[in-house]
Design goal:
By secondary structure, this protein is of the alpha/beta class. The protein has two domains: 7-124 and 253-266, 3-Layer(aba) Sandwich (Rossmann fold); 130-241, Dihydrodipicolinate Reductase, domain 2 (2-Layer Sandwich), CATH 3.30.360.10. Helix content is 32%, strand content 25%. The protein contains eleven helices and eleven strands. Strands 3-2-1-4-5-6 form a six-stranded parallel sheet, with helices on both faces. It has a five-stranded mixed sheet with strand order 8-9-7-10-11. The chain starts with 6 loop residues before the first strand and ends in a 7-residue tail after the last helix.
Length: 273
Amino acid sequence: MGRIEEYTLAIAGLGAIGLRVAEAVDRGEVPGIRLTAVSASDHGRAQRRLAGLSRMPAVVTLGELVGLADIIVECAPAKVFAEVAGPAVEQGRILIPLSVAALLDHMDLVERAKLTGARIIVPTGALIGLDTVRAMAEGEISRVVLETRKPPGGLAGAPHLVENNIDISDLSAPLRVFHGTAREAARGFPANVNVAAALALAGIGPDRTEVTVWADPAVDRNIQTVTITSDAGDATMTMRNIPSASNPKTGRIVAQSVLATLRRLTATLTVGS
């Protein structure tokens, strides 16, 4: 009888996403994946949060993490992206980055991965239809537009808002706070629109993908609408994500997307391109 290949897993960051993934893998929900290490800025707090696991992983620094697993899931603050992604690629690991916006500023890692044998796998995350976008990109895509609509609390503190003195603290009606390219959106909202970067990488690139961001006090979900025009057909896809209870900047589905990505690594049957 064939045996499912086993991979070891390390998680950089133990917030809403990292903890959910750690717990699911520890419960055996992803066959062939074994959690061996996590990194966190506060090791004592991390150990307390992981106390319910059946097998305690090593709690280490970012610098130590890459040497302890085959797969590195990066769900840390975007400012430390390079500290995780660079060593992971250099050591030929499978890198699953959640800070996809930061990846746009480190695309040299893709070329480096060709030499080291590393793989960079971007999860679909809080978006919908990346398989459709990838398929359309095999032909000709003429336009891709992403509209992001979030409760104001989910956008609070974004660099674009701070730099442009945009106050969203007491809105009574929807306010368009950004319109530009995916590359500009990724820099202006690094914790909010990683979906824009993922969409751009799947389709026509960060400088041709259009993004609009709305702060909307009338919604209680993170709403992403993608519109694509291509020679294979047109598509409009909307996702209404429930925000994570512990971090409104991200949706509950992001952790589930990471688990689905891990599952594909060992699955004997996969569905979707």
